[in-house]
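batch_manifest entry 22 of 60
target: Glycoside hydrolase family 28 protein
source organism: Mycena albidolilacea
requested by: lab member K.T.
priority: normal
notes from requester: please return tokens only, no post-processing; we will run our own comparison against the previous entry in this batch. if the run fails, retry once and flag.
--- input ---
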Amino acid sequence: MLAPSVYLLLLATQALGGHVVKQDATCTVHPSGNFTDDSPAIVSAFKLCGQGGTIQFVNQTYWIEKVMNTTGLNNTIIDLQGTLLWSAANISYWLQNSLPTGFQNQTSAWFLGGNNITFDGHGFGTFDGNGQIWYDFTKGVSNLAGRPHALTIWNTHNSTFKGIRFVQSQMWTMTISASSFVDMLDIFVSSTSNDSQPARNTDGADTLDSHHITFRGWEVHNGDDSIAMKRNSSDILIENSIFYTGLGVAIGSTGQYPGEYEAIERVLTRNCTFIGTRYVGYIKTWTGVQQGFPPNGGGGGTGAWTDSTFSNLTMQVAQITQCTTFSGAVGQCDTSTMQISNITWSGLKGNLLASSVASLKCSAAAPCQDLKILNSSFTFATNTTGTYSCHAVTSTEGFTC
Ligand SMILES: *[C@@H]1O[C@H](CO)[C@@H](O)[C@H](O)[C@H]1NC(C)=O
Ligand SMILES: *[C@@H]1O[C@H](CO)[C@@H](O)[C@H](O)[C@H]1NC(C)=O
Ligand SMILES: *[C@@H]1O[C@H](CO)[C@@H](O)[C@H](O)[C@H]1NC(C)=O
Ligand SMILES: *[C@@H]1O[C@H](CO)[C@@H](O)[C@H](O)[C@H]1NC(C)=O
Ligand SMILES: *[C@@H]1O[C@H](CO)[C@@H](O)[C@H](O)[C@H]1NC(C)=O
Ligand SMILES: *[C@@H]1O[C@H](CO)[C@@H](O)[C@H](O)[C@H]1NC(C)=O
Ligand SMILES: *[C@@H]1O[C@H](CO)[C@@H](O)[C@H](O)[C@H]1NC(C)=O
Ligand SMILES: *[C@@H]1O[C@H](CO)[C@@H](O)[C@H](O)[C@H]1NC(C)=O
Ligand SMILES: *[C@@H]1O[C@H](CO)[C@@H](O)[C@H](O)[C@H]1NC(C)=O
Ligand SMILES: *[C@@H]1O[C@H](CO)[C@@H](O)[C@H](O)[C@H]1NC(C)=O
Ligand SMILES: *[C@@H]1O[C@H](CO)[C@@H](O)[C@H](O)[C@H]1NC(C)=O
Ligand SMILES: *[C@@H]1O[C@H](CO)[C@@H](O)[C@H](O)[C@H]1NC(C)=O
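--- output ---
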């Protein structure tokens, strides 16, 4: 009788794409190398070695033509030595088959998750979403239904992702959803367009329904939120990172779903550098009155952003913060009941490219409280001392509206 690994090898070669060699608890995926779909081999490696084993990707390029759902892993090591390259040759396939994330009608190319996962890219293992094709196809439309996120880390606990490069993501790069105690370390993200179509909605990372998430040692170049906290995210640490060209650290958007309460609590951003981002940290909430429907309309939800700090940041940005309660809609500005309180910016230094330091258009229905800008020194690209514009802000420290 054949040994199991040999048997699997023979079985796998019947498929057109890559194949898996299993030895003990390690599954090594070998790509076809000729642009035939390697996703069936990858999914089978996770099935064979995703409970207490290792999934090994060699230093070659894998070609992925189909969605993948590899959730429910346990005590699993994923070792990425090569490049995972997503096909965008069949746009209609992705529009029809991308996996729903349960938020803003958005979808994903890959759902990955489980307990005690170590995903190591060693600083060179790469996700390549072939994003230029998507940027050209969407022509700047923000939420095109079915345009996939690169990766959704779902229902994942006590896990580490490190040393991974994400280039040219199809849309949002990764969302950490329904997860806790996940460390995202030394991650490089670059999604930029080489023509006049913007790399819009290419967030570096988003958190959703997740707690105790650490982002350390990130470098992000993109055309949207560098890292964003959405619906029910708490105890988030972002440190020792550098952000280029995007929008900076974002809270929201929140309040898009009528009747839902969304809390963003205890977000600490420290020792980071922001170069050419629009903001350091900003919040966008929907109006308290619903106007239209998700994904591109909404409002009427409520919630809170509290107890968060931005400290020891170096920057060259347009302004440090903007709080706006009427994202995407006209009027009804004073209706949001999203409570923003106890937010501190401290130890900031660097150059502001405009005269506005902060623009805080809060809502009269729930004024912003305890906003502090402390121990900071700015220089300005223009001849100004800086302005702070406020609406419905009840208490400030370190600055005057
Ligand atoms: C691609 O490679 C696989 C094996 O990895 C092989 O089965 C298949 O025939 C090749 N396809 C083409 C078009 O060369
Ligand atoms: C991966 O392979 C390429 C050639 O295909 C080589 O240039 C590169 O150094 C290899 N990287 C590592 C980390 O082994
Ligand atoms: C994970 O695997 C360990 C060891 O086999 C086992 O004790 C534990 O119950 C598993 N956890 C889950 C969630 O399957
Ligand atoms: C986590 O998984 C690794 C193998 O990937 C294992 O060595 C370790 O014991 C696991 N930790 C726990 C707490 O189960
Ligand atoms: C593209 O995907 C669509 C939808 O899944 C499918 O019907 C069609 O056959 C695919 N086209 C090619 C060339 O594979
Ligand atoms: C992924 O697979 C799991 C297990 O089969 C299933 O429960 C889950 O709904 C799937 N997720 C998506 C987004 O399809
Ligand atoms: C988005 O999903 C919501 C439910 O979550 C649904 O009511 C709405 O019709 C969907 N919108 C679109 C444009 O598909
Ligand atoms: C995560 O680890 C903590 C402590 O190490 C443990 O108490 C908890 O059960 C683990 N969570 C899961 C989902 O395995
Ligand atoms: C601050 O972050 C940089 C990386 O951007 C790192 O080299 C440095 O060690 C960090 N400083 C502290 C005090 O952690
Ligand atoms: C304000 O938030 C900080 C964390 O940013 C926290 O340490 C402090 O206790 C909070 N203050 C109040 C009054 O809740
Ligand atoms: C900020 O920097 C100061 C001096 O460089 C240091 O004492 C302090 O611990 C730092 N704070 C944080 C939160 O990193
Ligand atoms: C800067 O503005 C002040 C007051 O508006 C003005 O007196 C001063 O001449 C300006 N300096 C330059 C270099 O334009």
